[in-house]
TrEMBL record:
PROSITE patterns: BIOTIN, BIOTINYL_LIPOYL. Signal peptide: none annotated. It catalyses: N(6)-biotinyl-L-lysyl-[protein] + hydrogencarbonate + ATP = N(6)-carboxybiotinyl-L-lysyl-[protein] + ADP + phosphate + H(+). Keywords: Biotin, Lyase. This is biotin carboxylase. Pfam families: Biotin_lipoyl. InterPro entries: Biotin_BS, Biotin_Carboxyl_Carrier/Decarb, Biotin_lipoyl, Single_hybrid_motif. The keyword Lyase applies. One of its GO terms (molecular function) is lyase activity. Transmembrane segments: none annotated.
Length: 63
């Protein structure tokens, strides 16, 4: 399934805990929140808001 990155709720270097909102995606005219799967620090944002993505695309790195 293809979607679009609506917005990032985090910035590079920001600390997150599991469950924090990281990014909002739009697919099939519905907005879908993507949350952090673990505690850590955002070390990189791999795409920009507005980018078209497909399943398996890396959105952000948490270390």
């Amino acid at each position: 399934m293809q979607g679009t990155v609506v917005k990032f709720a985090v910035e590079e270097g920001q600390e997150v805990v599991a469950g924090d909102l990281v990014v909002v995606l739009e697919a099939m005219k519905m907005e879908n929140p993507v949350t952090a799967h673990k505690d850590g620090t955002i070390t990189g944002l791999a795409v920009e808001a507005g980018a078209a993505i497909t399943q398996g695309t890396v959105l952000a790195e948490i270390k």
